[in-house]
Records
---
Amino acid sequence: MQRKKIIYSICFIGLIIIALSCNNRGKKDAISSDLVHIPVSAEGENSDLAMPKFEFERTDHDFGTLIQGEKVSFTYKFKNSGTSDLIISTVVPGCGCTVAQFTKTPVKKGEGGFITINLDTENKKGPLRKKVAVQANTYPAETNLWFSATVELP
């Protein structure tokens, strides 16, 4: 009986520690959920509420032929053609060979922003086709950008 009490006490303390460690205090990059509102019903119907909207100059880029070890970058430029502030929450490259930088402040209606990808071709060879997933308060919530290259040995 005493053993059960000890086990229950340990489990209870563990749950308290987990609950307390799941807060957002101290996180600079945390975005308030009040800013992200996707007004789509369960049936998939989009309401007429104000929404931000990506308008990219292009969503696909071909780096052409690169020599293995070469480092290149490309900037995807966009405009917010929606009716409210556009907020990018994260940009997820499709592989470890790519790093992304992006506009981290809200992009007002009619204004522009950027997403820059940096590709390192070290240890790559042959044709590459990769995706970069951009997550924002738009509908749909994820927009895919693509890039390609052919990597040749030196």
---
Amino acid sequence: MTVEYNAGIQAVPMPDRIRWLPVSAKGFPIPWFVAWIDGVPDFRVVGRGRLAEAVKRKRCWVCGQPLGATFAMTLGPMCAINRTISEPPSHRDCAIYSAMACPFLANPRMRRRAAGLPADAIEPAGNGIKRNPGAVGVWLTKGYKPFKTHDGGTLFTFDDPVEVLWYAEGRTATRDEVEASVKSGLPLLMEYAEAEGSGAVEGLRRMTAEAMRYLPAPLSSVKAACRTAG
């Protein structure tokens, strides 16, 4: 059977693992975690038991195959700051493909569609920021850890990176684009911190300064490096 992929993602290099996934009616690969409802995939909903299986068996969140020694967290800049995310890791190439090809992640103007969600759909754990970050990172790390929230949900924290890649609009992101996402999202994190007290505010400032180390290099630095190499 010939698989017809969406024309908008055909230019994005597709990992072999992704090619094994089923394809939606609109031509998009259907990630392993996606729930099927009445025979139709709902990309907004996590399939029953998928999160627990991904954690227990160390399966890639995108392709479902076993992970290796390095874990790729696909995240927005706010998650890079607080080192907390609601989804388990993927393979490096699966995460990069998601960042470049997923309609929501690759299109800053895309908004989450809430209409028609199943009545029993469960919101992700934690106080997620419901926005399109505009820039998405692939945070490669050797360690991560799931933990339970006060309401019984599961979140993930992760170690320092061995590599961080940033994307926007299906391509490599500039530092300005990632900084713009930080600037627009940080006030939302600050609201939570201020509600917890001065200690939380100071902690957020420290975490923000740490995360800024992993943003793309300024364009001036890149140009200087190219001149030196030349």
---
Amino acid sequence: MSALISGFHHVCIKTRDWERTLAFYRETLGFREKLAWNLRATGRRAMMLDTGDGNYIEVFEDPDYAPSPNGAVIHFALRTASLDEVAARVRAAGAAITIEPKDVVLAATNGLGPVPIRIFFCEGPSGEVIEFFQNTIT
């Protein structure tokens, strides 16, 4: 890793439904509020939610936001050691699971050999695509 870059910091999403989005990330996934502020230009709310280990989801309130079908962020992946438990919580919260939990073996091209992973995908409250990723190598 570059000496200038020390890892993932945050992914930013917009939401029309502030309360629903915060409930999903705080109550369903257990993220903690780290920093909240109002955007200077609009006065709308913004927040950084700690996903663990100093990684964040940043949320911007935008009542006029309409998610594009294939935005610039294809998806973001959250690391977990309890994928099936997370899937149950996501399902119970009413989020659409778009790819059910499954085992996949990645054929690494950098000498690691076969890399077993377990994943599932869901749609977050603002249309964002979230991958949940469990493995022991990365």
---
Amino acid sequence: MQDFFFDQLIRYEAGPSWQLVLLCVLISFLLCQMIATVYVWTFTGLSYSRSFVISQVMGGLVTTILLLAIGNNVARGLGLLGTLSLIRFRSNLKDTRDMVFVFGSLAIGVAVGVQAFTVAVVGTVAFCAAAMYLGFSVFGSRRQFDGLLRFQAPSSPEADRLSKAVLKQYCSNFTLINLREVAQGRFVEHAYQVKLRDTSYNEPLVAALRAVPGVDGVSLLMQDQTMEV
């Protein structure tokens, strides 16, 4: 396929023919749209942006057009480099995963722009397959059972001992992150970062702490799997 287009279309001193340009633009658009679609399917964040998805497709398309315009001309490449150096991109990406998808779209645009169609197609399929696998699997997850536990207990060694006994029963690990006196020193507010032994232990843990004499205001906030803190 590549040999046909190289022999029939690209060998002109004026640059690639309009047929090849149209073909490259269409291929780049379809492949980058495929990457953007996988991004939408696997998105699990809190602030979805349609403009960012559209930017992925347009970014790959622009990259392809730039490389087709430059071709093998060094002077054009230097001129383009000087022009782009005047542009300041100030958009901040909140998630590193978004940055990877941007680079993926740009890489596909580069591959199509240099007429490496096989690399572009195979690379797109591999990138999308990897993104879907990593997005829907539990690969890299470690904090799916973590939570923030708060409660108030009387300021006495007995209440502290009983509450820690409950934590040891239901939690594989717990760390005290905040401790402060309330009610003029009669009670102490505890804040723990806890890791439950099992996902079903959240309600039994709260019930067991409420059963401790004097313990009040028990709250357990489970961290979402998509949020790293």
